[in-house]
Prior knowledge:
Layout: H1 8-30, H2 36-41, H3 48-59, H4 62-75, H5 77-84, H6 87-103, H7 110-118, H8 120-153, H9 157-206, H10 208-218, H11 228-247, H12 249-257, H13 263-274, H14 276-285, H15 287-290, H16 301-350, H17 356-378, H18 385-390, H19 393-397, H20 400-408, H21 414-434, H22 440-458, H23 472-475
Helix pairs in contact: 1-9, 3-9, 3-13, 3-16, 4-5, 4-14, 4-16, 5-11, 5-14, 6-11, 6-12, 6-13, 7-8, 8-9, 8-16, 8-17, 8-21, 9-14, 9-16, 9-17, 11-22, 12-16, 14-16, 16-17, 20-22, 21-22
Amino acid sequence: MNNAVLTPSTGWLLMALFSVAWILLGWRLGRKAKTLDGYMLAGRNVGLALGTATAMATWVTSNTTMAAPQLAYQMGIWGMVGYSLGAMGLIFFAPMAERIRALMPEGYTSGDFVRLRYGKTAWRVFLGISIFYGIGWLISMGMAGGILLHALTGIEYKVGMTVILFVCMLYTMLGGLYAVIGTDYIQSILILVGIVALAIIAFARHGFEPVHATLAAERPALLNLLMPAALMFLFNNLLFGLGEIFHSNVWWSRAFAFRKGIGLKAYLIAGVFWLPVPITAGALALLAPHLGMNVPAVDMVGPMVAARLLGTGGAIVIFIVVFSSLASSLDSLLAATSDLLVEDIYRKHFNPAASEDKLRRASVFIIIGLSLAAWLICLPRLTHLAGMIAFTGAFVGSTIWPIAAGLYWRRTNPIGSTLGMVAGSAIGLTAYYVVGWYVAALVGSAVSMLVVLTTTLLAPRDFDWSDLQESPQEAAL
């Protein structure tokens, strides 16, 4: 039975309008990209307004707008509050972004840092983790696109997933980081306005007290602040957010792209603005019991509640919000992962003498390849969104200490950092299957921390910060 609020024709119309808008805007902005630095890093001259908007919009993923309601519906108060701790990743990365820009003014990727700081073995381990994580994130957002359209319009999951991946691939391929950052600016405004408006209207109509009374009577566990799984998720998501941002080239590429002195302010402001978004989105799911709703799939609860509350208008708003959040994250991930593969795999392993034109062409082909790979993996709907996201938690958690210690601690042991990433990933992934999906990042980061700190204290290695700076000629292997 199809419970969609919007008709398929309305869904197709909205999807066509926003798809054409993003593609045209991306193409227009991309005309600024005259050089490789322009295409990959927006000329290294991004200002505060665009910098803040792109950081905030990129972090408001489909996971925020759809998985936050799912987690609130499953874990209650701590589900949405725990998700909001992802803001700490942006806030803690703020001073790191400034330091990265100062230490590596000509850097391109997070892989550059790991290679120069720890050597080739650590670099290749790190690349494996980063590429695996990137594909996982792409899959989760492709899935969310299909889920959104199916929940709101009845359009088949595979069709919606295909459209969102194709649209983001096309305008990212045409415009590079200029297109990504420019579209992010508009998408961030749409996301904030849409989410806040939905929450205000919803609770203005039903009130906090009646919703609380229904939860206390029918789903008291959602109000239990001592729910063990929710508490574990709280700390797990905090570390997951740190690991995602600390290691991912999505955030490092912006550190390199921001104008000098912008990174600290942009990431800090973005974190503050992002903090209430998952709480606001998650709160919508707490209305489901009050509305007497039957939720057939937990990752559809957000769109379903919005549509039930506000009818066609609510469905359109949530469509716009999630479509914007999907696009703002997918484009960023495609651009940043392409940079990593072009610079760290293609150029440094296979073609050190490649010209700028050849590297740009390689970027285009890699963006297409990444999109195709994500599409193929997304075809069968693998699991629920939160589980799909959390699967990568062990891997990203294992990178927190090698990155943070490597940026600030001159004596961090390179071998220990490599072992920390390997052991943290392996043991964290084991915990994912043995204990639960909500502990993978927690265990992975704890193991990595223990290895990095122990090896550094027992066998410290001195490092000269000037070794992080290299010319394009020195970068060739």
